[in-house]
Design brief:
about 400 residues; alpha/beta; Aspartate Aminotransferase, domain 1; Aspartate Aminotransferase, domain 2; seven-stranded mixed sheet; four-stranded antiparallel sheet; 12 helices; 13 strands; PyrdxlP-dep_Trfase_major; Aminotransferase; PyrdxlP-dep_Trfase_small; transaminase activity
């Protein structure tokens, strides 16, 4: 018997994953000249010097070897201290695992808690990785809409209606990407109560917790449903450390134990000297002073972009209270889909925005604008958009 020759073999599961629309637009724009990108959600600030110096020092001190799979104990203690200081939440360092950013944290949660025939509830719109992680876990995906009239918060009544006998997990992400929405305390408590009543895990992805405006506050889900919450967080946005790939997960003891087993076979451990730098990031006041300066700058940029968009034809912004994104509605009379509108702006204004459908079907009719960009570029981008849209 002769076998057909193939140059390579691919697992079928890889075909379940869709490439990120955000990355596709980013790469398309890179090939064009004179383009301003308001697409990628990455701080344009440099990592604070005190953190960079801590990493350099750690290398010189010999932190170039393996660490415990869960992370360096002192770093995990620093994370526990942070939650005690900021939120008055008592967490054992043993219930923390250091991960390669929040991306790995969410991946570990999906793979550890879900399997075929389990359901996961994911809001719509939502950040792009959740649905893809669910596909790899072979879980059923239930989407619940985030509505403008509810300020893009999860509606507890709709959440209860979506729960089935197979539902095992709910994903939440506040401050929210892409909408910039923030959860009110009463909604956080309601979700916590539902999770406890229906025995659900909550995967709460909270990397934008420090970027809040107009007096908004962040309420970590783990404070209200500690036995049901898997909290994913990251240093990427807080300290402008996107390329460092440093994050962590907090979860109930039995969950963390199994997440560590999987983590050990995925990456083993996060880079040792980067973990040491993470200790400095949390404990040195200069890190927090740098964060305060970034937050003030984002607030100014947010005000600038809202001002321009409010006067611009064919687009209406939702007023965000968190993160560094603006979620803007496209004039339905234009008859353009979100993708068509984003492509049109790129071709006619030289500005990259992300179509709302990159985040789910409920994102149709919207675009996401990142204001993690210098004021001068934001101003020029707004002027270009206004000029182009005024001709429609």
């Amino acid at each position: 018997m002769r076998y057909k020759k193939r140059k390579y073999f691919l697992a079928g599961r890889i075909n379940l994953i869709q490439r990120s629309k955000i990355r596709e637009l980013f790469e398309k724009a890179k090939k064009m000249e004179n383009v301003i990108s308001l697409g990628i959600g990455e701080p344009d600030f440099d990592t604070p010097d005190v953190i960079k110096e801590a990493a350099k020092r750690a290398i010189d001190e010999g932190y170039t070897h393996y660490t415990p799979n869960a992370g360096i104990p002192e770093f995990r203690e620093a994370i526990a201290e942070y939650y005690k200081t900021h939120y008055k939440v008592d967490i054992s360092p043993n219930d923390i695992i250091v991960t390669a950013g929040a991306y790995e944290a969410t991946y570990l949660a999906f793979q550890t808690l879900l399997e075929q025939d389990d359901d996961v509830i994911i809001p719509d719109p939502a950040f792009v990785c959740y649905v893809e992680d669910a596909k790899i876990a072979e879980a059923g995906i239930l989407r619940i809409p985030l509505r403008e009239e509810n300020e893009f918060q999860i509606d507890p009544d709709e959440l209860v209606e979506a729960i089935t006998k197979r539902t095992r997990m709910l994903v939440i992400n506040y401050p929210n990407n892409p909408t910039g929405a923030v959860l009110k305390k009463k909604t956080v408590k309601a979700i916590a109560d539902i999770a406890e009543d229906y025995n659900l895990y909550i995967l709460s992805d909270e990397p934008y917790e420090h970027f809040l405006y107009e007096g908004a506050k962040h309420y970590p889900m783990i404070k209200y449903a500690p036995d049901n919450t898997i909290l994913a967080n990251s240093f990427s946005k807080t300290f402008a450390m996107t390329g460092w790939r440093l994050g962590f997960t907090i979860a109930p003891t039995q969950v963390i134990r199994d997440m560590i087993k999987l983590h050990a076979y995925v990456i083993g451990n996060v880079t040792s000297f980067i973990q040491i730098a993470g200790i400095t990031a949390l404990r040195d006041k200069r890190s927090w002073e740098a964060l305060d300066a970034m937050r003030q700058t984002y607030a100014e940029r947010r005000k600038l972009v809202l001002h321009h968009l409010s006067k611009m034809p064919h687009i209406t912004p939702f007023r965000p209270k968190g993160a560094f994104y603006l979620w803007a509605k496209i004039d339905p009379e234009l008859g353009m889909s979100s993708e068509d509108f984003a492509d049109w702006l790129l071709e006619n204004a030289g500005v990259v925005v992300i179509p709302g459908t990159a985040f789910g079907k409920a994102g149709e009719g919207w675009i996401r604008i990142s204001y993690a960009t210098k004021k001068s570029q934001l101003t020029e981008a707004m002027e270009r958009m206004n000029e182009a849209l005024s001709k429609l």
